[in-house]
Design goal:
Blueprint lengths: L1 E6 L4 H7 L8 E6 L2 E6 L6 E4 L8 H14 L15 H4 L1 E3 L12 E5 L7 H13 L2 E9 L1 H4 L16 H9 L4 H11 L2 H7 L8 E3 H5 L6 H15 L10 E4 L2 E6 L10 E4 L3 H9 L5 E8 L7 H9 L12 H7 L19 E3 L3 H12 L7 H8 L4 H6 L2 E4 L2 E4 H4 L5 H8 L3 E3 L7 H18 L5 E7 H4 L9 E7 L12 E5 L2 E9 H7 L11 H12 L4 E4 L5 H10 L4 H14 L12 H18 L10 H7 L3 H10 L7 H12 L18 H12 L3 H14 L14 H17 L17
Parallel strand pairs: 1-4, 8-11, 18-20
Antiparallel strand pairs: 1-3, 2-3, 5-7, 6-12, 6-13, 7-12, 9-10, 10-11, 14-15, 14-16, 17-18, 17-21, 19-20
Helix pairs in contact: 1-2, 7-19, 15-18, 24-25, 24-31, 25-27, 25-31, 27-31, 28-29, 28-30, 29-30
C-alpha cells in the first residue's frame, strides 16, 4: 500500500474523478488542514506533493496528472532514459547511444504535428514520460516541409500520406456499408434532424469529401472552415445532428448545407476534415518532429495503456490527466501552436501509433524503415503475411463488415496483430460490390424495425441473410429476425411471414429470447449426433451475428458472442474431414486417382466443413467463395477455384454457363427418365443475382454448383489438374490437426468498432 499526500487547495471530488479507472484502484480521502491523501495498492515509496503557485490549470487536474504519472511509473524507469533527445532540434537526426543492432523493435512513433512549437523542454519531458512507462526513444528526426508534403493540392485528392491512409481513402472514395448505414441512422434519425435540415437523414445524398470539392462546387478553405467550426462547437463524436460523428473505423460524417444556397438539400459528407488535415501537411514553412519509441524496461506498460494514459484520446478535452494531449490543453505539457495557442479539438498537436501495424506504417513513413527491418514486420512475415501488402491495403473484410486494419489492431503487439489479420481478407476501401443494394434494404429495415419493435414482448430486431453480410444482390430478400420475450398466455408466434415492401420481398421470423439462449449454448461433445445436425444448429445461431437494428436492452452482442464462440465437436469435425480425405485416395474414379467430379465435390465439402467450424458458419453454396476469401482462407479459395475451373471469368462466359445450366431440363422441367432432378431454381437465381452485382467468379461457381447438384454438369471422370487431390488431402490433414489440438482456440468475431482517429 502506497500513500501520496498532497497539500494545497484542491477539490477531492474532482481529484477522485480525475483518477477514475487508474491502475491499482487509488482512493482519495480528505485529511483536513488542506491535505488530501491518495492510497493505492501498487508498489513504490510514499510521496508528499505540494500544489505549486501560478498553475495554468485547475489544481485538481494538476494533482490528478502528477498522481497518474506516479502510479504508472515502472520500477526500472531510471534505466529507460533517452539522453540528449532534445539535440535533434539542432542536428536534425538523433539516435540513442545504446540502440542495439538488428531489427528495430518499433513499438510506435510519436509525431509532433506540423506547425506545433516543439522545444527542447518538450522533448525532455517526453523522454521522462516515456521512461516512466518503460520505453525510450530509439531515434528522432526533424522533418522539414519538403519532407512532409505528400504532393498535389487544391480540390484534387493528393496522394495521401501513409500516416493518414485509411482516413484519406475514405475521404476520396468511401461509401457507407450496411453496418455503417445503421450506425448513421442511429445517430441522425431524430426529429431534431428534420427540424434543422428539413428532410430525413436517409433521404439525403452521401458524398465523400473530395467529391464535394470536385468541379469547384466547394473550396477546400470553405470546407475546412465549416468542418473546424463544427468540431470546435460540438466536439468529436458528440451525437449532435450538426456535428462530426464517428460511425465506422476512421470514418466520420457531418451534414453540410450551403449557407449561400439554403434551398438546396443538405449533403452527408464522409471525412470532411481530411482535405484540411492533408492541407496542413502541405503548408510550406512548417516542420514536424518524429520520435521512434522502443521498449526499454523489463515490463513496459501495455500499448493499450500507452494510447489511453500516455497519449490520450483524440479530443484533448476528453483526454486523461497525465496524457500528452490532456496536459498540453491544460498547460502542463510544453506543446502549443506556433503563436503559443493551446492545442485544439481539431488539432491535438501530437500523434502516437495505436499498435504494431500503425507503428510499422509510421516507421516507414517518417523514418524510411523497411518493414522487414523491424521486429513487427518480421513477425507478420513469419505468420505468412506480406508486410508491404498489409500496409498498402488498409482495410479488412469479414462477412461483409469493413474494418480498418489500424483500428482492428489498436493496442495489439505484432503477434496478436498478425493473428487478427490472418482471420480476415485485406481489401481496398470500396471492394464491396453488394453494398449499394444492402444499404437500400437497410433503409427499409430501419423503418420496419421501428414497427416490429413495438410488438408486444419484442426486445430486438436484426437484419440477417445477405443484407446482414452486406452482400445483397438486386433480387435479394430482406430477412429480419425479431427476438421476443414470451408473455404469459400469449398465442404461439406464427412461422416466418412474407410481404413485399418497395419491390423487396421481406421475410420476418420470430425467435423467443429463451430459445436464443438455448440455441447459443455450447454444443455437447458427448451428445453424439451428426456433423450436419451440428452445422444446422450453428448456422441458425450465427444469425444472431446479423446487423442490429433495435436492441434497447443490449441482448444481441452477448448472444452474438456466444454464437461465435460455439465449436463443432472435434470428433465430428475430424470424422467429416477424414471422409473427404478418404475420397482423395489413389485408385478412385480413374486409374490414377479420383476424377474431376469427385475432386470438385471434395473441394466444396472441405470448404463447407471449414466454414461451419468458423464464426461465420456455412450458410449456402452462394456464399462459399466470398466466405472463404473474407475468412482469410486463400488456400481453400484457390483450391475451390481450381477444382471448379473458375479462372477469371467475364460476364459473357457466366451468361453462357447459365444458359447451358438450364438447357437440359429447365428450372421447372420434370425429371427425365434417368431421374435427374431439375436444376435448382433458387441456386440459378442466386447465380444471376451475383452476375448482376459483378461478382463473376462467384456467379460461375453458383451456376456450376446448381448444375452439378442436378446431375447436369459435365459428368466426366477426366483427371483433375495434377496434384489437386493431394492438396485437398493435405488441407484435410491440416484442418483435422487443428480441430483435435487440445489448445484449439475458440473462434471469435471481429471486435467492435469505435476508436477515434
Amino acid at each position: 500500500m502506497r500513500t501520496i499526500t498532497i497539500s494545497g487547495k484542491l477539490d477531492a471530488d474532482r481529484l477522485s474523478a480525475g483518477l477514475a479507472g487508474a491502475a491499482d484502484g487509488p482512493t482519495v480521502t480528505p485529511a483536513g488542514d488542506g491535505l488530501v491523501r491518495v492510497r493505492d495498492r501498487g508498489p513504490g515509496p510514499d510521496l508528499a506533493l505540494t500544489v505549486p503557485d501560478g498553475l495554468a490549470c485547475d489544481a485538481s487536474w494538476w494533482a490528478a496528472s502528477v498522481v497518474r504519472r506516479a502510479l504508472r511509473r515502472v520500477p526500472d524507469a531510471d534505466a529507460c532514459a533517452s539522453p540528449g533527445l532534445g539535440s535533434v532540434l539542432r542536428t536534425g537526426l538523433w539516435r540513442h547511444p545504446d540502440a542495439p543492432p538488428g531489427p528495430v523493435d518499433a513499438a510506435g512513433v510519436v509525431l509532433f504535428k506540423p506547425g506545433m512549437a516543439v522545444g527542447a523542454s518538450t522533448l525532455r519531458e517526453l523522454a521522462r514520460r516515456l521512461a516512466d512507462c518503460g520505453y525510450r526513444a530509439d531515434r528522432a528526426r526533424v522533418l522539414e516541409d519538403e519532407e512532409i508534403v505528400g504532393g498535389g493540392g487544391g480540390a484534387a485528392p493528393p496522394p495521401p500520406p501513409h500516416h493518414y491512409l485509411p482516413h484519406a481513402e475514405l475521404a476520396r472514395r468511401g461509401t457507407l456499408t450496411a453496418e455503417e448505414r445503421i450506425a448513421f441512422l442511429r445517430v441522425y434519425d431524430r426529429p431534431e434532424f428534420r427540424e434543422v435540415f428539413g428532410a430525413r437523414p436517409q433521404d439525403l445524398p452521401v458524398e465523400c469529401a473530395y467529391d464535394l470539392l470536385a468541379g469547384g462546387r466547394l473550396s477546400v478553405e470553405r470546407l475546412e472552415a465549416w468542418s473546424t467550426a463544427s468540431a470546435e462547437l460540438r466536439g468529436l463524436d458528440s451525437g449532435a445532428v450538426d456535428g462530426p460523428n464517428e460511425i465506422g473505423d476512421c470514418l466520420f460524417v457531418n451534414v453540410y448545407r450551403d449557407p449561400e444556397r439554403p434551398a438546396e438539400p443538405a449533403v452527408v459528407v464522409i471525412n470532411p476534415h481530411m482535405p484540411g488535415v492533408l492541407g496542413q501537411l502541405e503548408d510550406t514553412g512548417h516542420r514536424a518532429v518524429a520520435v521512434l519509441v522502443a521498449p526499454a524496461g523489463a515490463r513496459p506498460l501495455p500499448w493499450a495503456r500507452m494510447r489511453r494514459e500516455f497519449c490520450g484520446v483524440t479530443d484533448p478535452a476528453r483526454a486523461l490527466p497525465g496524457s500528452l494531449r490532456g496536459d498540453a490543453l491544460a498547460g502542463l505539457y510544453p506543446l502549443s501552436g506556433p503563436a503559443g495557442e493551446p492545442v485544439r479539438r481539431t488539432n491535438n498537436g501530437v500523434h502516437l501509433s495505436n499498435g504494431a501495424i500503425e507503428a510499422l506504417q509510421d516507421a516507414r513513413t517518417w523514418f524510411g524503415l523497411r518493414p522487414d527491418g523491424t521486429a513487427a514486420g518480421q513477425a507478420l512475415r513469419a505468420a505468412g503475411l506480406v508486410p508491404e501488402t498489409v500496409l498498402a491495403r488498409p482495410f479488412l473484410e469479414q462477412a461483409g463488415r469493413r474494418r480498418a486494419v489500424a483500428t482492428l489492431t489498436d493496442g495489439l503487439g505484432a503477434g496478436a496483430a498478425a493473428a487478427a489479420l490472418t482471420a480476415a481478407r485485406l481489401c481496398e476501401v470500396d471492394e464491396f460490390p453488394g453494398n449499394a443494394e444492402s444499404v437500400r434494404r437497410v433503409d427499409l429495415a430501419w423503418d420496419l424495425a421501428a414497427e416490429l419493435g413495438r410488438e408486444p414482448g419484442a426486445v430486438a430486431v436484426l437484419a440477417t441473410g445477405s443484407v446482414g453480410r452486406n452482400r445483397a444482390c438486386p433480387d435479394s430478400d430482406l430477412n429480419l429476425l425479431v427476438l421476443h420475450r414470451p408473455e404469459p398466455g400469449a398465442p404461439v408466434r406464427p412461422g416466418p411471414a412474407r410481404r413485399t415492401v418497395d419491390g423487396v420481398e421481406v421475410c420476418v421470423e420470430h425467435l423467443a429470447l429463451d430459445g436464443a439462449e438455448r440455441l447459443t449454448d455450447a454444443l455437447d461433445p458427448a451428445a453424439g449426433g451428426s456433423f450436419d445436425a451440428a452445422a444446422e444448429r450453428l448456422g441458425s445461431a450465427a444469425r444472431l451475428g446479423g446487423l442490429v437494428l433495435f436492441d434497447p436492452e443490449g441482448h444481441v452482442p452477448r448472444l452474438a458472442e456466444r454464437a461465435a464462440a460455439q465449436r463443432v465437436p472435434a470428433a465430428l469435425l475430424a470424422q467429416a474431414l477424414s471422409e473427404v480425405r478418404r475420397r482423395m485416395q489413389p485408385g478412385r474414379g480413374t486409374a490414377d486417382g479420383p476424377g474431376r467430379d469427385e475432386v470438385r465435390r471434395a473441394a466444396y465439402d472441405l470448404a463447407r466443413l471449414v466454414l461451419t467450424a468458423g464464426p461465420m458458419r456455412f450458410h449456402k453454396a452462394k456464399w462459399v467463395p466470398a466466405d472463404l476469401r473474407s475468412a482469410g482462407r486463400p488456400q481453400l479459395w484457390e483450391v475451390l477455384r481450381e477444382a471448379w475451373q473458375l479462372g477469371e471469368p467475364d460476364e459473357e462466359r457466366v451468361r453462357a454457363e447459365l444458359a447451358a445450366a438450364t438447357a437440359p431440363s429447365g428450372a421447372d422441367h420434370r425429371p427425365p427418365a434417368d431421374h435427374r432432378p431439375p436444376v435448382d431454381a433458387r441456386a440459378l437465381a442466386d447465380a444471376r443475382g451475383l452476375l448482376a452485382s459483378g461478382r463473376f467468379a462467384d456467379a460461375l461457381f453458383c451456376a456450376r454448383f446448381a448444375a452439378a447438384v442436378a446431375g447436369h454438369g459435365p459428368g466426366t471422370d477426366a483427371a483433375p489438374p495434377a496434384g489437386l487431390a493431394e492438396r485437398i488431402a493435405a488441407l484435410c490433414d491440416e484442418e483435422s490437426d487443428r480441430a483435435t489440438r487440445p489448445d484449439r482456440p475458440s473462434p471469435s468475431p471481429l471486435s467492435p468498432q469505435g476508436t477515434p482517429r
